[in-house]
Amino acid sequence: MITDRVVLLLVLSVLWPSTALPFTPGNIGNLFGMPDSDGRTLQRSKRGWMWNQFFLLEEYAGNDHQYVGKLHSNMDRGDGNVKYVLTGDGAGSLFLIDEKSGDIHATKRLDREEKAMYSLNAKVLDRRTNLELEPDTEFNIKIHDINDNEPKFAKETYFASVPEMSEVGTSVATVTANDADDETYGNSAKLVYSILQGQPYFSVDSENGTIKTALPGMDREVKENYQVVIQAKDMAGQMGGLSGTTTVSITLSDVNDSPPRFANHSFRVTTVESTEIGGAIGRIKADDPDVGRNAEMEYSIVGGHDTFNIITDQTTQEGVIIIKKALDYESKRDYEFRVEVKNTYLDARFIHGLQFKDYATVKVTVEDVDEPPVFTRNPYIIEVHEDTAAGSFVGVVSARDPDADTKPVKYSIDRHTDLERLFNIDSVNGTITTLKALDREMSKWHNISVVATEINNPRQTTRVPVFIKVLDVNDNAPEFAMSYDTFVCENVKAGQLIQTISAVDTDEPLVGHKFVFSISATNPNFTIADREDNTANILTRRGGFSRREMSMYFLPVVISDNDYPIQSSTSTLIVRVCACDSRGNMQTCNPEVLPFSDGLTTGALVAILLCVVILLSKPRPPSSASVLGQCLVGHKMYHLLDLSIIVPPSVFLVLWCTDSICTFRNMDDWNPTQCVLNPNSECGK
Description:
By secondary structure, the protein is mainly β. The chain is built from two helices and 46 strands.
């Protein structure tokens, strides 16, 4: 036996909490699973410690400190010179060592679930010098588990659902418990699951806690909720094991396994004939024990219906009967049709052999109401000629009481629609006549409202629009479409186009306008060519015009229409004589001042000018030159024309006309404001 080595004797309290085995060379191998090796103490070759680990049962309930084991060195001669020291986890608090004997005790009750192993260091010191006799060594104290913790579920109550009518063995949910005991040591943490409440509807897998359906054909409409109690027991479910429970609340979710059904297969609805189109007249309801989308239904009328329709109220799942065509008590009072109801969503598992639809008969009764008068037409369109005299016939409107007991009606015109009071109506027979003559050029249409009122019930009234179209009568003559600024060059040749004219007419003949233009055939200066498109060309009949001889021509143009009676008017086209270049471009058109001739005396000239002043002070036509009047001076007749369109206002012209040839003289140097003449004097009106 080697005597110069230190041997650590580990005396263990293993599986028996109240028993500690003293170390002897012969039993250390048994404690640690080591052979005796011929009675010699096993030791390490380079140090004096024998080491392994101590085992200590948790939850020691004795009054004394629990004995853990003994440390011993072969350098201890038993003379008290060796001192044992313990350091590490819990040293000096949880674990105490007798420094002389090396005995280790646990001072407190230990819980493996709090700490399963403690690591400590053992030292051997010389008591006198306090020097280490050997380097320290590490050893463990492992806490052995006892079954002191019951299984626990994470929740007291779990919630799960499974479709109704599920097959046996359908998984519902899995619930597992935790056991804080050591699952690697014994069966303290080996759990077995069982069902305490919820049979025969459900079962649980004993190993993994999976809950499954155990009964076929579970119907939500019969029973919807189940309370299942699951137990988890340790020690592999053996007698004496600890257990914990939890509750699983299982709800059967709905499937569409129930068709809709009418509680009554005949419905009666009553409505009044005045119900508006689109109005609801009643509701019908089918029952479906399913819920959610599985209970959604849609209603329809079998074969459709021309008067009624049915729609589905998505909130109440009712069928709403509505009007799609106006009702009339006098025409039809009773209706009957068949309604179908069916589920919107179907489950393929249940449609075989089961009709997910139902039928019911609906009878509708229409009740009479006092209805307002009804016009035979709506609206009325009437035509009348514009030359119709006051009191003339325009047209007739007619209304009747639609009720079974026909009541008389009276007629009137809403004067808010006839502010000018152009029309009247006979209150008894509805004949419309004119109060005034109509003018189409003022208004082509007159829109009035005629009111029919029940004589016995004035609250029952009906209005109808009457559109009166005023037909045209050819009562207006055509005239120039515009004012023309026409000139002819002095060097013009015969047949030269100098102006294209057109006309307008406020009348509207049915076949359109057709205007005819003409001038005097004896006119030596100009001619006209009708273009057959309501326009005409003015052409020169000769060449060689001279401003000195005649600086302006007045050409009367007669314009006629083709309607009946034919209307015509004469418009005067003023043609100025202008100096032009070789290309026909106008250069100047100012008339030259020429001395008076033809034997006019000063008195005659003054008389003519006075006539001009008087006539120019009168209202003038708005367009081309027109004759204002005539002045007789001596034996000669002078025509006075309004030339304000082409001549500055300060220029007054005295004209001498013979047939269609007119001569004028410029009187620019004469001031008309110096002339005073009695406006009532005779001046050839």
